[in-house]
Inverse folding.
């Protein structure tokens, strides 16, 4: 069981998408790996991005 609702939804929808594309035979062997990056731990075009920036709060 997932603790974070958003993570659960991401895993379920990704699995559903792959099953839709490759058929239900792919569902039992589909593995979804989520590599979480700490807030501010990534950027675009040389600029560090945070969740606040992406949500228009900064």
């Amino acid at each position: 069981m997932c603790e974070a609702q958003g993570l659960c939804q991401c895993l379920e929808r990704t699995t559903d998408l792959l099953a839709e594309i490759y058929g239900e035979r792919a569902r039992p062997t589909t593995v979804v790996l989520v590599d979480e990056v700490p807030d501010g731990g990534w950027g675009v075009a040389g600029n560090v991005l945070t969740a606040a920036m992406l949500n228009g709060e900064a």
